[in-house]
């Protein structure tokens, strides 16, 4: 159990960084938020891969890692869009 958490943190950090490199443009995200997005994507990707039986292969689980990366890219896009919406926000009223 502890090994799974440690590997999720390590893989999540790598996945989060790769997702930031893949997403075009500037992402207004901190390193901590990138780690959180990567870790969540790694955990969800592993869960989905186990549910479909894709995680029990011989050698490297490429499908699981690709799924984790796709989820991380989606997470980075979602966070970037949410922070961009808050940054611009509605204009002043009554002008």
TrEMBL record:
GO terms for cellular component: plasma membrane. It is a multi-pass membrane protein. Coiled coil: none annotated. It comes from the Bacteria. Keywords: Cell membrane, Membrane, Transmembrane, Transmembrane helix. Belongs to the UPF0410 family. This is GlsB/YeaQ/YmgE family stress response membrane protein. It comes from Nonomuraea rhodomycinica. The lineage of its organism: Bacteria, Bacillati, Actinomycetota, Actinomycetes, Streptosporangiales.
């Amino acid at each position: 159990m502890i090994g799974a958490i440690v590997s999720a943190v390590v893989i999540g950090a790598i996945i989060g960084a790769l997702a930031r490199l893949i997403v075009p443009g500037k992402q207004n995200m901190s390193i901590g938020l990138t780690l959180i997005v990567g870790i969540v994507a790694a955990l969800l990707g592993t869960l989905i891969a186990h549910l479909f039986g894709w995680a029990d292969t011989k050698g490297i689980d490429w499908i699981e890692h690709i799924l984790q990366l796709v989820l991380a890219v989606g997470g980075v896009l979602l966070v970037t869009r949410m922070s961009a919406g808050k940054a611009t926000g509605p204009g002043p009223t009554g002008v």
